[in-house]
Design goal:
Helix content is 31%, strand content 20%. It is an alpha/beta fold. It has a single domain, classed as TIM Barrel (Alpha-Beta Barrel), CATH 3.20.20. A hairpin with a 2-residue loop joins strand 5 and strand 6. The chain is globular.
């Protein structure tokens, strides 16, 4: 039985709905010994800023029940280094490239967007929701700020812009609508959930940044709920993520309304999880007689 797995994410055709989540797959190079990068729908690279960022002091990672806390702080070598070193490697493969752009303020976001003017990338993921960077949450939790930064980036970008939103809000739909008003062509849901851990022997917070982002299966119900809500109320494609560990999780997100899904923390426990999930989706479609993955998008609505 022939089947179609291709999806349209913000005007860009992905060969299948499988992408990687920013910060969990490097720039693809690190996973290339384990994963055929040509088989992925898209690779979302680790966050890129205008200038190099050193990140946060240690400890940066902490294991938790059902997940992981990270307070890496978006350490990266900056846009120029990424464009010179990582992009040529990625362009060897038949997969779409999503560049996650980060900043500390509006000027930062404008500068890094302009760094990629004329650069051959497929999509921009505008990260206004990192919980472990100072001011990282402010733009992603305020509708007016979210709309402003989205508009400023969209007017300068040479690729479609999907905005990555924070779950640390009371009304995710309001934030998503603000990004839609600002000209976003897609929404990325969700970033990690703000959390912390205390070292009871040292009697102080374990993470050097005190708080960090919780990811992994513990946050999946939150992520799924938010994808469902935004899909129901906003007319933009969604890149869904948050605790996707297996193909069944991926199918749930698509049925909730996600056009594509991104796999994050699961890459750390199984470097080949993206391939396992792709094969699981293919088997599910065969078993259920589904000829087009798009036929089940939002079916749970």
């Amino acid at each position: 039985m022939s089947r179609n797995l291709s999806v349209d994410l913000a005007g860009v055709t992905l060969k299948n709905p499988i992408a990687t989540a920013s910060g969990t797959f490097g720039s693809g190079r690190e996973y290339s010994p384990f994963v055929d990068l040509n088989r992925l729908g898209a690779i979302t690279v680790k966050g890129v800023s205008h200038e190099p960022w050193e990140g946060n002091p240690p400890h940066r990672i902490a294991e938790t029940y059902g997940g992981m806390l990270n307070a890496v702080g978006l350490q990266n070598p900056g846009a120029k280094a990424f464009i010179a070193y990582e992009l040529p490697f990625l362009r060897q493969f038949e997969t779409k490239i999503i560049v996650n752009l980060c900043g500390r303020d509006l000027d930062d976001y404008i500068a890094v967007t302009e760094d990629f003017a004329g650069v051959d990338i497929d999509l921009i993921e505008l990260n206004i929701s990192c919980p472990n960077v100072k001011t990282g949450l402010s733009m992603g939790t305020d509708p007016k700020a979210a709309e402003t930064v989205t508009r400023e980036v969209v007017t300068r970008a040479n690729a479609p812009v999907i905005v990555k939103l924070s779950p640390n809000v009371t009304d995710i739909v309001t934030i998503a609508k603000a990004c839609e008003a600002g000209g976003a062509t897609g929404i990325s849901l969700i970033n990690s959930v703000l959390g912390m851990k205390i070292d009871i022997n040292k009697k102080k917070p374990l993470l050097g940044n005190i708080m960090g982002g919780l990811s992994g299966p513990a946050i999946k119900p939150i992520a799924l709920r938010m994808v469902y809500q935004v899909a129901k109320n906003v007319n933009l494609p969604i890149l869904g993520m948050g605790g996707i560990m297996c193909w069944e999780d991926a199918i749930e997100f698509i049925m909730a309304g996600a056009t594509a899904i991104a796999i994050g923390m699961a890459n750390f426990t199984n470097p080949r999880v993206t391939m396992d999930i792709l094969e699981g989706i293919e088997n599910y479609m065969n078993h259920e007689g589904i000829t087009d993955i798009n036929h089940i998008r939002g079916i749970a609505q």
